[in-house]
Amino acid sequence: xxxxxxxxxxxxxxxxxxxxxxxxxxxxxxxxxxxxxxxxxxxxxxxxxxxxxxxxxxxxxxxxxxxxxxxxxxxxxxxxxxxxxxxxxxxxxxxxxxxxxxxxxxxxxxxxxxxxxxxxxxxxxxxxxxxxxxxxxxxxxxxxxxxxxxxxxxxxxxxxxxxxxxxxxxxxxxxxxxxxxxxxxxxxxxxxxxxxxxxxxxxxxxxxxxxxxxxxxxxxxxxxxxxxxxxxxxxxxxxxxxxxxxxxxxxxxxxxxxxxxxxxxxxxxxxxxxxxxxxxxxxxxxxxxxxxxxxxxxxxxxxxxxxxxxxxxxxxxxxxxxxxxxxxxxxxxxxxxxxxx
Length: 341
Ligand code: F6P
Prior knowledge:
Elements (H helix, E strand, L loop, with lengths): L1 E6 L7 H16 L2 E5 L3 H5 L3 E3 L2 H4 L24 H10 L4 E6 L1 H12 L4 E5 L15 H22 L2 E6 L6 H10 L3 E3 L7 H13 L5 E5 L27 H13 L3 E5 L11 H19 L5 E6 L2 E6 H6 L6 H8 L4
Parallel strand pairs: 1-2, 1-4, 4-5, 6-8, 6-9, 7-8
Antiparallel strand pairs: 2-3, 10-11
Helix pairs in contact: 1-10, 6-7, 8-9
């Protein structure tokens, strides 16, 4: 049996560990053959394949990025479409695809699978916003990077008695902000699920400042102030026609300074949260997902994906991951809010 592996959408620490897990288990336990597919669905549509053996995956668990490359190509556009893809796979003797990706990738995988293309999925998102999986690999690494960055912001903030506003990723959900903010002792955390007014934010900033602290505000890129219709975006659209987010901290910082009179600085962490080596937790999670994906393709569990439930790896239909976003529950926000101010 020959299997193609692709990574698609935004990259994420742990992608290489998944690839290694699939190839090691697939070759040693099942005698599977693998090809790497370059740059996500683009490589499927354009038949851009290369042999993927144990040799290519050695030492990969700790390596950031993806050796396969990635893109946000839609497999139904251009020369794509299910019939063309089926013909390409048949021509190259490929019996199925493992697609490692987030919401957009899994939605495409779901559609292709319904159109008869054998696809199995591995969920990926640093934002931790996919339904059906309690945590996704990449999230823990992003939280560690953001926490370290905020620890650093706090020492410079303390030295100058400034308010520091740290902006983290999180298009629809505030998991990175919530976890990194709690870990770093933020005085207020602003997430997409809980709109706040500028006065609610500045009240916490002032309270922290009056206690002699240099206030730390953590904000998700997708946060909206009360009354704000759309998340802040001034960078146009991405390949999926979604607004490119980033910059809300630079809107909030001058407002905080104007209202409180406290000198305020904004820092956008951006793609640094997606780069570099995965954490130990993410290496293990990604490797386990890869090992289970190898079992799944042998059993031809097409149309499904692996997911983490508690501490177990389970299999669920694509639809389960796509139905609802994995948002921060109100109770988790309230728990963290006890530490604000
Ligand atoms: O979906 C994950 C994510 O990291 C979002 O938080 C962010 O909005 C987006 O990717 C940015 O991706 P890129 O700049 O690579 O298009």
